[in-house]
């Protein structure tokens, strides 16, 4: 089975514009030598090396009609992965967008991964949604990781 990370049950906000923040993780599925760091919940630790397929999804929401841009990018061991940024722009008050990306990463035992994000306007955030009578709750961000080779 694959590790699945989620950031439910809270929204993630930026306190400053144009500033990178690590996405906080607070739940995980199967471990398979991949886990949330016990001291820094923005880090996903790899106890075993190999090549891994990552599937990332975030729900971005807006509370104003001004145009705002949100950026997502990975860091491995504190170094930004080149040519990896996802950019999404929101224009409407109450607008929600799903932002996603798939990628392959080669990790060594002891490496860590951080999913980073930034926004041009603090009226944009990563939004979780509570359960309704007809649908389950959704985390603000999810990431699934599958080992494809060792």
Structural write-up:
With 150 residues, the protein is mainly beta. The chain is 0% helix and 49% strand. The chain is built from no helices and 13 strands. The strands form two sheets. Strands 2, 4, 5, 7, 8, 9 and 11 form a seven-stranded antiparallel beta sheet that branches. The radius of gyration is 15 Å and the shape is globular.
List keywords for this structure.
7-stranded antiparallel β-sheet; 150 residues; mainly beta; 6-stranded antiparallel β-sheet
Q: Give me the secondary-structure category.
A: mainly beta
Count of discrete alpha- or pi-helical segments spanning 4 or more residues: 0
Note the main sheet: 7 strands, antiparallel
Amount of beta strand: over 45%
Low-confidence stretches: none
| Secondary-structure element string | EEEEEEEEEEEEE
Radius of gyration over alpha carbons? 15 Å
Mean pLDDT: 92
**Fraction of residues in helix:** under 10%
Task: Give the tally of β-strands.
Answer: 13
Shape summary: globular
Distance between the termini: 16 Å
Task: Describe the SSE topology.
Elements: E1 4-6, E2 21-22, E3 27-28, E4 34-36, E5 44-46, E6 50-62, E7 68-76, E8 79-80, E9 86-90, E10 96-107, E11 112-119, E12 124-126, E13 141-149
Antiparallel strand pairs: 1-3, 1-13, 2-11, 4-5, 5-11, 6-10, 6-12, 6-13, 7-8, 7-9, 7-11
């Amino acid at each position: 089975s694959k590790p699945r990370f989620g950031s439910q049950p809270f929204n993630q906000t930026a306190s400053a514009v144009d500033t990178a923040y690590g996405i906080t993780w607070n739940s995980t599925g199967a471990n398979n030598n991949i886990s949330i760091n016990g001291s820094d919940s923005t880090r996903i630790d790899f106890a075993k090396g190999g090549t891994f397929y990552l599937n990332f999804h975030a729900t971005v929401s807006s509370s104003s009609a001004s145009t705002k841009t949100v950026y997502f990018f990975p860091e491995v061991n504190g170094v930004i992965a080149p040519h990896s940024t996802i950019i999404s722009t929101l224009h409407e008050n109450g607008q929600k967008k799903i932002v996603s990306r798939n990628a392959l990463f080669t990790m060594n035992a002891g490496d860590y991964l951080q999913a980073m994000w930034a926004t041009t306007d603090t009226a944009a955030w990563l939004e979780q949604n509570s359960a309704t009578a007809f649908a389950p709750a959704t985390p603000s961000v999810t990431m699934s990781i599958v080992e494809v080779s060792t």
